[in-house]
Design brief:
about 20% helix; 2 helices; 4 strands; single chain; globular; 4-stranded antiparallel β-sheet; alpha+beta; about 80 residues
């Protein structure tokens, strides 16, 4: 699913070279995808809630942005 999102991002026009997807969660007909990138020298995390059809993300339902790197919290959940 993250690969499909990378393809969508590549079509928008911004560089996707620094984008990673540290976590994805399948919620049936929806999915949560965490995207990490560096913006203005600072790591930024986004969580997108997507509608999913045929295993591919089709529509963004919600976006949550974290302005600071919370990788330490992600490590706590592993």
């Amino acid at each position: 699913m993250a690969g499909a999102l990378t393809c969508k991002l590549a079509g928008i026009g911004e560089s996707v070279d620094d984008v990673t997807f540290p976590a994805t969660t399948d919620l049936g007909d929806q999915a949560a995808i965490v995207m990490r990138r560096v913006k203005d020298g600072e790591p930024v995390l986004y969580t997108f809630i997507w509608r999913v059809r045929d295993g591919r993300p089709t529509t963004i339902l919600r976006e949550i942005t974290f302005d600071r790197d919370i990788s330490y919290l992600l490590r706590l959940t592993r």
